Recover the amino acids of this structure.
């Protein structure tokens, strides 16, 4: 960062100096007509002096219009006095930049003063044109300095977008001339390492999916062969195998979510119909009373498969831990968000543990243990899917004295 600031400071500093010096030179030689104007007026003064010396000042027809002074009436600078004695025309300027001429006649005592004369005003258009050109050159130089920096920042943007969407085929082309080239190389190296880790994780998930299922299938076959000898013991072992199989399925499902967002398609979804369909599905196998109040025709943008997974997990959670009833509400509180609330009348969740239930493999107490069939991944999956949809989930105490899960999703504007 220090290198970036120093580079920018010195670049701008020296660019301004170069532009100012160049502009001043151009203005003096081409933009400002004052030098040629003075040369012309000086030549006129020399011609007048020659005329006065030839015919005599008293014989000059317009003598009364001349400003005649004695040489000793003015406090001359030494160089001015010397120039007058040499026969040169002396030019001086007043506080308003008006110029005047002094010339000494042949009698070496009479000085004729011409002026003061106001200089020819410079064109405002020319003045601002020079300023425009100067600032345009500075802007061009800044663009040339910023171009490598802009290219590196664009590359960083592409790299982060690729990582965010799960693309692992990252290609980098760092610039040697950028002020942040070192930082860019470190970030791109980190991105390549992250992509490599994600690729390894994906390969590990695929390997686990195959390698763990194979011995489990053999174990289930062996238990089936042993069942006639000790049915009770084999049944208990079968339950452990089934539980292990369910845990592996849940873990693999959660791990695959890391790579699912890239392939997820989005569309406009009628959330009211989607919620109703999931309620109907759960009602078939549930022995609890499910009450619902759904606002009709609420639309959101997203993937219906993954949003259905969110609804399934929340309803199954309420089914597991509720005692007698489940309450589902879908309402729109403002023009931006829709709120889905799934409540149960179970033991509830202590306030100090409500945030932790969304962490993977979190089970709070015996009432929410593996005996109910959960492994602590359902709510973690809910959080991850809602993150893809710019949504959120939080827990409060329900109106029916259990846990109440609130889901917020942005309403479709299309």
């Amino acid at each position: 960062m220090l290198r970036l600031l120093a580079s920018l400071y010195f670049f701008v500093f020296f660019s301004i100096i170069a532009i100012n010096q160049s502009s001043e030179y151009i203005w003096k030689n081409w933009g400002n007509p004052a030098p040629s104007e003075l040369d012309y007026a000086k030549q006129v003064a020399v011609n007048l002096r020659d005329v006065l010396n030839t015919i005599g000042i008293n014989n000059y027809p317009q003598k009364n219009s001349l400003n005649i002074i004695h040489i000793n009436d003015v406090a001359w600078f030494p160089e001015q006095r010397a120039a007058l004695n040499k026969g040169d025309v002396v030019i001086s300027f007043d506080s308003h930049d008006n110029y005047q001429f002094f010339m000494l006649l042949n009698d070496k005592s009479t000085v004729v003063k011409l002026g003061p004369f106001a200089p020819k005003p410079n064109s405002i258009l020319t003045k601002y044109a020079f300023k425009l050109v100067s600032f345009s050159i500075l802007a061009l130089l800044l663009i040339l300095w910023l171009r490598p920096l802009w290219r590196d920042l664009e590359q960083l943007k592409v790299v982060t977008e690729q990582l965010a969407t799960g693309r692992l085929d990252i290609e980098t082309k760092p610039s040697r001339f950028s002020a942040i080239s070192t930082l860019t190389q470190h970030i791109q190296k980190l991105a390549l390492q992250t992509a490599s880790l994600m690729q390894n994780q994906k390969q590990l998930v695929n390997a686990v999916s195959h390698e763990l299922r194979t011995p489990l299938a053999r174990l289930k076959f062996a238990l089936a062969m042993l069942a006639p000898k000790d049915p009770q013991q084999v049944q208990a072992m079968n339950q452990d195998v089934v539980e292990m199989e369910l845990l592996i399925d849940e873990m693999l499902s959660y791990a695959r979510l890391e790579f699912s967002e890239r392939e997820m398609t989005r569309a406009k979804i009628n959330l009211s119909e989607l919620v109703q369909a999931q309620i109907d599905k759960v009602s078939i196998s549930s022995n609890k009373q499910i009450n619902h109040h759904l606002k009709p025709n609420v639309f959101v943008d997203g993937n219906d498969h993954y949003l259905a997974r969110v609804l399934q997990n929340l309803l199954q959670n309420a089914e597991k831990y509720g005692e007698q009833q489940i309450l589902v509400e879908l309402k729109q509180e403002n023009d931006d968000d829709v709120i889905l609330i799934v409540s149960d009348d179970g033991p509830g969740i202590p306030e100090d543990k409500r945030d932790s239930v969304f962490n993977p493999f979190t089970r709070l107490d015996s009432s929410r243990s593996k005996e109910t069939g959960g492994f602590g991944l359902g709510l973690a999956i809910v959080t991850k899917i809602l993150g893809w949809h710019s949504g959120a989930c939080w827990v409060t105490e329900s109106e029916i004295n259990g846990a109440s899960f609130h889901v917020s999703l942005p309403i479709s504007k299309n």
Summary: Residues 33-117 form one domain. The first strand starts at residue 67 and ends at 70.
